[in-house]
């Protein structure tokens, strides 16, 4: 899924988020390209700033690997016993990789595939991540008790409690509107945009899945 947005400040951004399963291996892909244009310059004439393409995969053996920069690049081992991996990327912060371990611990790294891990949360069932060059990484966790938390801007930022009784979540982010969060609870889809503390908007009833892009 690709989304292209051109803001009034001359910032164009392309973000790709997709997940696919091939031969028993779960892939998570993310890329972001930011282009700054001078007055009267088209997006085609402006050169991209170099946000890396990042691919993460989780093998059937629970091993998380990642690569960046090229589809032909070599894999870098990330975690030996993972239950989920999600990735994002932007031109300022580089790759953002978040892993949920088989024991419910969330670890994250930023800037390099070989960067050290930052312990984020424990007792987690699901994770989601997004990033943009202005607002930085956006990480969301859904605990085993159904409580959703999110943080933005830094791996060491504080957590904001988003919802109690969530079943599913999705996140996106862009430099103009900031965080975009979707959440599913008891078949009802909710969304919020612009800040972690903004109120939820009831989007629809009878829902089984939510997805967002921004």
What does this structure look like?
There is one protein chain. This protein has 214 residues and is mostly beta strands. It has one domain. The chain has no helices and 18 strands. The protein has strands spanning 2-6, 11-22, 25-36, 54-58, 64-68, 76-79, 82-90, 94-101, 106-110, 118-121, 124-132, 136-143, 147-152, 160-164, 168-174, 178-185, 188-193, 201-204. A six-stranded antiparallel sheet has the order 1-2-3-4-5-6, with no helix packed on it. A hairpin with a 7-residue loop joins strand 5 and strand 6. The chain is globular.
Percent range of helical residues:
under 10%
Give me the number of helical elements: 0
Number of separate structural domains? 1
Strand order of the largest sheet: 1-2-3-4-5-6
Alpha-beta classification: mainly beta
Give Rg in angstroms.
17 Å
The share of residues in extended strands comes to over 45%
Topology:
Layout: E1 2-6, E2 11-22, E3 25-36, E4 54-58, E5 64-68, E6 76-79, E7 82-90, E8 94-101, E9 106-110, E10 118-121, E11 124-132, E12 136-143, E13 147-152, E14 160-164, E15 168-174, E16 178-185, E17 188-193, E18 201-204
Antiparallel strand pairs: 1-2, 2-3, 3-4, 4-5, 5-6, 7-8, 8-9, 9-10, 11-12, 12-13, 13-14, 15-16, 16-17, 17-18
């Amino acid at each position: 899924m690709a989304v292209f947005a051109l803001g009034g400040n001359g910032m164009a951004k392309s973000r790709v988020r997709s997940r696919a399963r091939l031969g028993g291996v779960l892939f998570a892909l993310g890329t972001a390209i930011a282009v700054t244009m001078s007055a009267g310059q088209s997006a085609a004439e402006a050169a991209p700033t170099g946000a890396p393409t990042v691919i993460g995969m989780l093998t059937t053996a629970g091993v998380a690997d990642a690569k960046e920069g090229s589809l032909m690049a070599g894999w870098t081992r990330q975690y030996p016993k993972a239950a989920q991996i999600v990735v994002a990327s932007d031109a300022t912060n580089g790759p953002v990789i978040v892993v949920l371990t088989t024991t419910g611990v969330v670890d994250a790294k930023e800037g390099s595939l070989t960067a050290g891990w930052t312990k984020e949360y424990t007792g987690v069932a699901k994770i989601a991540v997004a990033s943009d060059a202005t607002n930085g990484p956006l990480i969301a966790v859904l605990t085993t008790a159904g409580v959703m938390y999110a943080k933005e801007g830094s791996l060491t930022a504080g957590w904001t409690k988003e919802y109690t009784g969530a079943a599913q979540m999705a996140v996106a982010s862009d430099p103009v509107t900031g965080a975009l969060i979707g959440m599913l609870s008891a078949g009802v889809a909710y969304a919020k945009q612009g800040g972690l503390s903004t109120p939820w908007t009831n989007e629809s009833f009878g829902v089984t899945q939510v997805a967002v892009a921004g």
